[in-house]
Amino acid sequence: xxxxxxxxxxxxxxxxxxxxxxxxxxxxxxxxxxxxxxxxxxxxxxxxxxxxxxxxxxxxxxxxxxxxxxxxxxxxxxxxxxxxxxxxxxxxxxxxxxxxxxxxxxxxxxxxxxxxxxxxxxxxxxxxxxxxxxxxxxxxxxxxxxxxxxxxxxxxxxxxxxxxxxxxxxxxxxxxxxxxxxxxxxxxxxxxxxxxxxxxxxxxxxxxxxxxxxxxxxxxxxxxxxxxxxxxxxxxxxxxxxxxxxxxxxxxxxxxxxxxxxxxxxxxxxxxxxxxxxxxxxxxxxxxxxxxxxxxxxxxxxxxxxxxxxxxxxxxxxxxxxxxxxxxxxxxxxxxxxxxxxxxxxxxxxxxxxxxxxxxxxxxxxxxxxxxxxxxxxxxxxxxxxxxxxxxxxxxxxxxxxxxxxxxxxxxxxxxxxxxxxxxxxxxxxxxxxxxxxxxxxxxxxxxxxxxxxxxxxxxxxxxxxxxxxxx
Length: 472
Fold this sequence. Notes:
Blueprint lengths: L7 H12 L5 H6 L8 H17 L4 H7 L2 H11 L3 H11 L7 H28 L6 H21 L9 H17 L11 H7 L7 E6 L5 H14 L3 E6 L4 H15 L6 H6 L4 H13 L5 E4 L6 H18 L3 E7 L14 H19 L2 E7 L23 H4 L2 E6 L1 H6 L6 H14 L2 E9 L5 E8 L4 E4 L5
Parallel strand pairs: 1-5, 1-6, 2-3, 2-4, 4-5
Antiparallel strand pairs: 6-7, 7-8, 8-9
């Protein structure tokens, strides 16, 4: 490697520590040979991984024994030094041991990323100098590549996905004991008691889809979940692909004021029609909840690659603010821009998006809530409650999602069926008043729990979703 920006000692120090022996399984689980810029170092590291796999040790003699004759001879021909002598020198000169090797591994990944970004910058300069280059395609390619590099910086290349049965079982038992102390809550609270009881909370590494027809209150439910999760100390990120951050924040402030027992309709706030009392109530509510760890992003037309890159930034900012990101809400699926891979095939485009979001949830240990607008076929039925079959033409949503929930408000349809006759209108008004704030959240799919329907109180005007009143 002749690049003057490459510092070989960074890789040599880490390899020396690994070859010294000890338990380096966490390091081996997080790095790949590709993170080593020098090809010979990549091969030595690959041999160390093989030694750990076959013999349970990474000591220098064991690693050397696994080297092929071709590699041994080739190394000597290129460097003028025998491989055995080189490996011994790495062991004797390393400043690391099992106690501080983590820093050495991080330095290796950082150097790989730095040189990778350097190469991408050079390629960008060359491509941008070509008048025939499509700037939009170039920009997306750069975003995708830098996103990939950034993900390695956060995860160290990969997480350890392999566990013994005993380790996995112990984790499950620990989670069960913790859930018992939290009254059955194993995930992130939604703020809705019956929903948390049915699901154990919003689970990290899960993709949760909430579908509904327009104007049912999807965004209202999403912002309510965000507020309650943040109030529990979990960092929340919201991608509002359709509504700007100011209007979304107005909904949240309206919800906060409602929690303090004052109705402040968010549409009145946006239009500047609040009374003095309402303005005061909104200001006090905002002051009380000013520290909620919620980050909003209202960029439109984002691709999965761009959402991943922005999520990385959100995670860094949330970490700096002291509330690590745990929940991501995306509003909504229809506004996520697909790649060109399946251009024209909406079914496959949606499948690619949901698959990418599921991978995002698993990689970053996040609960990802994806809001989705259902098709008009719901309107053709007498019973307009959504069904899983309404997702039939929406890619692999049902397959990729760990939980699928449908929001329904009977009042929405009643409001649009106002009769003309006076005597019928009296009955209609009574029926509407009875269901005006009633909502249903049907759990249509749940990998680790039963399907059921949760009754809700919904004040759409104030963007408030609450537990339904109980009859006992």
